[in-house]
Amino acid sequence: PAATILAGKKVLVTAGGTREPIDPVRYIGNRSSGKMGYALAVKAAQMAAKVVLIAGPTSLPDPPGVCVKKVETAAQMRQAVLAEYDDSDLVIKAAAVADYRPQLASPQKIKKSEEQLTLTLEKNPDILRELGAKKTHQFLVGFAAETENLLEYATEKLQKKNLDMLVANDVTLPGAGFNADTNIVKLLYRDGHREELPQMTKIELAEKILAKICEHISK
Ligand code: C5P
After folding, report:
1. Which sites bind CTP (predicted)?
2. Does 1 score more than 50 pLDDT?
3. For residue 51, which of 11, 87, 114, 195 sits 20 to 30 Å off, Cα-Cα?
4. ipTM of predicted complex
C-alpha cells in the first residue's frame, strides 16, 4: 500500500526562511513561518521514514523522531543540504531561501549618518537547481510561491530545476501562503500532469502531498 512506501527511506526536508546578515544585529529575512516544512517532516516520520529536517530560524519546536539541523543563511542551508543529499530518497524543499544576500556583512553595527544607505546584494546559489542538476535516484520536490502567472512560472521552475513534482501556491489568496495555517496549492508533475487541491490545513496538505509522492514513486 502507498502509505508504507516511505518506511525506512531517507527523507530530506527543508523549512523556514533564511536570514542574510547585514551587520551583527541586522539581517534580510522573509515571512516564511516554517509550518509547511515542519508538517511534512512530522508526517513523513509518522510514515516511518528516516527524516532529516534542515530549518531556518522558526518559533516551532523540533518535531519528535526527526533529526533537526538548524541553519541561518542560504549558504549554510546549501552546505547542510548537500551533506545529506546523496543517500536521500526523497527531497522536499519547502524552505524560502533568500535569492540575494548583502555582498558584505559589516563586521560592526552600521551607524546612522547619511540620509540614504545603499546595500549591494549579490545572488545566492539556487540550492534546488543544484540538486536537480546532480539528481540520480532522488525524488525531488520543490515549492513555488507566486503572486502572478502561477502556472506559467511554476511550469518553468519544474523544468529548469529538473523536479519530479512542484507544489505551487498563489500567496495573494486569503488562506494561502506564508504564515497562514492553511494553504491552497496546485501540484505539477514532470510528465505535465497537474491537479488543483482545495483549501486545507498545512497538516492535511502535508499528508496529501506525501500520499501523492508515494503514488508517483510506486508507478
Ligand atoms: O525560484 P524560486 O525561489 O521561486 O523556487 C522555489 C524553490 O526553490 C523552493 O523549493 C526553494 O526551496 C528552492 N530554492 C532554493 N535555493 C534558492 C532559491 C530557491 O533551493 N536560492
Report:
1. 99, 109, 125-128, 143, 157, 161
2. no
3. 195
4. 0.94
